[in-house]
């Protein structure tokens, strides 16, 4: 393969001195998306990518599209006899929000009806406690800058909105549907330039009142990067407010008795503050306060106390920490001979649900589940009952919703996704390998019958306590059906083994994550699954950082890379997008010790001229307000300049989409490009006859 010419990217003599270390930044000009030079370079990169021959792309696109015709179904949210849920039929671009009752079901909100161009997404929704009104948030073009509306459930008319600056806002209704607590950013004019994405506050909003007159109840004077949570008990008596600095794995927590203080000025009592733990509260129908915490329990535990005595010294263990499984959620079913708690766990990322006596916490049984896969949140009726609902998926099963009845002990299918799809016959094996320091790491390997070495994609994430659990993936199945192998490594930094596992891969321990990925690759090669010239790695967002670091640390180990919406300039990442909220995960270049961590692996700064790097495709999104595309732009320019081999370095820019949800058709096109690129550079011959 002959090395192709790349668009000219001039190199500036910019060198910063950080804590005595010279930090060159020759492509800083690419941080300016509106600069004519940047636009010209991006146009040339786009033309280069579009001129690239990707054999098998059409077939992969068709298979991904066909598999996504399974559609989707969401777990119901109950309010009395009304249920609220989302469904996407095979030919729809986005899920549609429905309400159902004894008289049937009807559409409440169809994003495509709002926007035939399919650029509008439903970000969140929350019915009031009676199910008569519903607050929802939508954003356009992938920017995730949610606008809040309130509608009348009976006829769908808009009562309120839009209220802007409601990105990532929880909605906590007070009884009666006339008011709710929510989170809103301060107006841009009220914050320093460049900090418009931060400075959130908790407000009380009365329906029909101008949001400019909302009463601020919390957040003034606190950390600019704080995220806030807010909830109100079903009876309206108890308010809880939480605060987390960015994405820190800890939170401060307060409660207020709304019978003893007004909703406009709740008297907040501290539950925990400056404590290194994550804690959430549920005010039970039985008058008890249920505490879900990892305080002194990295895998999680459930405690009980009284709402009047919410602090840790009053907590009593109900569901103690498990030695092996991570506690994920719980629900209470109180219409039984003895009230019970259903407790969700993940054991090495495989889900299960146990049943416990509500008073003692003793284990009395387990909930039958469809297989070895992933279970979504367990949902009960707010007023209590004997039923619970949960979603289930695995590597070959599209997500469906199941119902468990504690009176019969049976689990039944509540609703399947609406589309029937032909799923290829594959097998999933969970293997264990050892990382560089001897730590055991789990990995899921999806393949068809056959022997290696075969073209293989190794996928990972390894950050923010997010677990890589089994799930239906059209991209994975299309790749495996074509003859490849797909491996998902459960790296440190994730949540598969609890909070200690997360912290073993964050801050100064970040190199452990990269070592875990390299060890996964070596295991796949040593066991004959693949070979280095047939092995690709893929990751997005924090996973894009993962594969960016991997290709610079071990370019010999990988044949191809897909790096999507990545963080790559770890010296300047805090200056863009939501970067300032992540220094609790990565560290800050402003702190000498933490600069050392970042400088040690920052992918952009580890590129060396004269090295033969893997074939690399960067995919970025123009409306991404979380991770700015500049990371990939600068990295692509630097790799194209440094590449000594003949394997291509390409950049795929996409407009009017962002970091999160997107139309199905856009997901199909992205997946087809990524898979076809990896197929070409790992030797996977894609044909319709397989």
From TrEMBL:
GO terms for molecular function: oligopeptidase activity; serine-type endopeptidase activity. It comes from the Bacteria. Residues 8-416 form the Peptidase S9A N-terminal domain. It holds the Pfam family Peptidase_S9_N. The keyword Hydrolase applies. GO terms for biological process: proteolysis. Keywords: Hydrolase, Protease, Serine protease. This is prolyl oligopeptidase. It comes from Planotetraspora mira. InterPro entries: AB_hydrolase_fold (IPR029058), Pept_S9_AS (IPR002471), Pept_S9A_N (IPR023302), Peptidase_S9_cat (IPR001375), Peptidase_S9A (IPR002470), Prolyl_oligopep/macrocyclase (IPR051167). It is an enzyme of class 3 (hydrolase). Belongs to the peptidase S9A family. Its EC number is 3.4.21.26. It catalyses: Hydrolysis of Pro-|-Xaa >> Ala-|-Xaa in oligopeptides. Residues 472-683 form the Peptidase S9 prolyl oligopeptidase catalytic domain. One of its GO terms (cellular component) is cytosol.
